[in-house]
Write a structure and sequence with these properties.
By secondary structure, this protein is α/β, with parallel strands linked by helices. The chain folds into three domains: 53 residues, Single alpha-helices involved in coiled-coils or other helix-helix interfaces, CATH 1.20.5; 212 residues, 3-Layer(aba) Sandwich (Rossmann fold), CATH 3.40.50; 57 residues, Helix Hairpins, CATH 1.10.287. Strands 3-2-4-1-5-6-7 form a seven-stranded parallel beta sheet, with helices on both faces. α1 runs parallel beside α3 and α11 packs antiparallel against α12. The longest helix has 28 residues. It starts with 7 loop residues before the first helix and ends in a 7-residue tail after the last helix. 36% of the residues are buried.
């Protein structure tokens, strides 16, 4: 039978078996499938994810976030190589800014982690963020599961790096590492509600050359500030490192491994992942309902007029939204009564 005519569910299950066997090409293909926005791919993608669950319970999921230019890719490559030497198999999911023309990744972090990409026990996958805010892509969670099913026991999620609102990564990982660059003027500018609140450890990068002293000073200042911001007993360590010269990174790796082990031992890790799964359910419900709303014929017919009235200040956005929702309830694709 021609592969194009085959049952998509059977093809997905075959792909899942290849992923679990460690086939790297199959893993890349599987991530492409779950990231696809085509409606006709959704059933196969769902079958694929169902076939690879449950994900590995002994894996470590690490989020790495920080502003552009802080050196996330350089750090991740050095960190990943040290983890490989320690016996880990490393997957990196690098979420990149999206092209407005094609929707694809702009930066292509894989090209900036050449040494790590050449390792047999490493896998690097750049993915476009698309329209999703928060620094990660909509299907990053499923990509993490696929990497774990393929035998990678350390999955690093690198966020887009667009600012201090990238808190979505906390709902995907076991530990979140926030990277900071010294010498930006106000060293405490990063101490704000939001991204710092989700960080389990801070890393001040570029502690080398002319910035070495500034990096050590920034690490000290952040450490003092965090003791005031965080609740008593909730220690957040701050490390000064040089990703370029690979100094201080082994200390970070040892802390992450010890912290992850402690979370697994006291049950915190299981509780965290359960809470993340519940959050994922509500997130998916919201995004799926919005898609259904946009695709509803009645709503689609009404929206141009609503947009025109809102644009011309004849109707408030909230009132327009209520009218669209009423149309969806009365004749939506789910057939719900008004």
């Amino acid at each position: 039978m021609d592969e194009r005519e085959a049952d998509p569910i059977a093809l997905a299950e075959n792909l899942a078996a290849r992923v679990k066997a460690g086939d790297r090409a199959a893993l890349a293909q599987a991530i492409t499938l779950v990231e696809s926005t085509r409606v006709d791919h959704r059933a196969a993608a769902d079958a694929l994810v169902a076939a690879i669950l449950p994900a590995r319970s002994d894996s470590l999921r690490l989020g790495v976030t920080g502003a552009p230019g802080v050196g996330k890719s350089t750090f991740i490559e050095a960190y990943g190589l040290m983890c490989l030497a320690g016996g880990r198999r490393v997957a990196v999911l690098a979420v990149d800014p999206s092209s407005t023309a094609t929707g694809g990744s702009i930066l292509g972090d894989k090209t900036r982690m050449g040494d790590l990409a050449r390792e047999a026990d490493a896998f690097i996958r750049p993915s476009p963020a698309g329209p999703i805010l928060g620094g990660v892509a909509r299907r990053t969670r499923e990509a993490v599961w696929l990497c774990e099913a393929a035998g990678f026991d350390l999955v690093i999620v690198e966020t887009v790096g667009v600012g201090q609102s990238e808190t979505a990564v906390a709902d995907l990982v076991d530990l979140c590492l926030l990277m900071i660059a010294p010498g930006g003027g106000d060293e405490l500018q990063g101490i704000k509600k939001g991204i710092v609140e989700i960080a389990n450890l801070l890393v001040v990068n570029k502690a080398d050359g002319d910035l070495a002293a500034a990096a050590q000073r920034a690490a000290s200042e952040y450490g003092h500030a965090l003791r005031l911001l965080r609740p008593a007993g909730e220690a957040v360590p701050v490390f000064a490192v040089s990703a370029l010269e690979k100094r201080g990174i082994e200390t970070v790796r040892q802390y992450v491994e010890a912290r992850a082990h402690a979370l697994a031992q006291d049950g915190s890790l299981a509780r965290r992942r359960a809470a993340q799964a519940r959050a994922a359910l509500w997130s998916e419900l919201g995004e799926s309902l919005l898609e259904a709303l946009k695709q509803d014929p009645g709503v689609a017919q009404l929206l141009p007029e609503l947009e025109s009235q809102v644009a011309n200040a004849r109707l408030t956005p909230s009132a327009a939204a209520r009218r669209a929702l009423a149309a969806f309830r009365n004749g939506g694709p789910l057939g719900r009564p008004a």
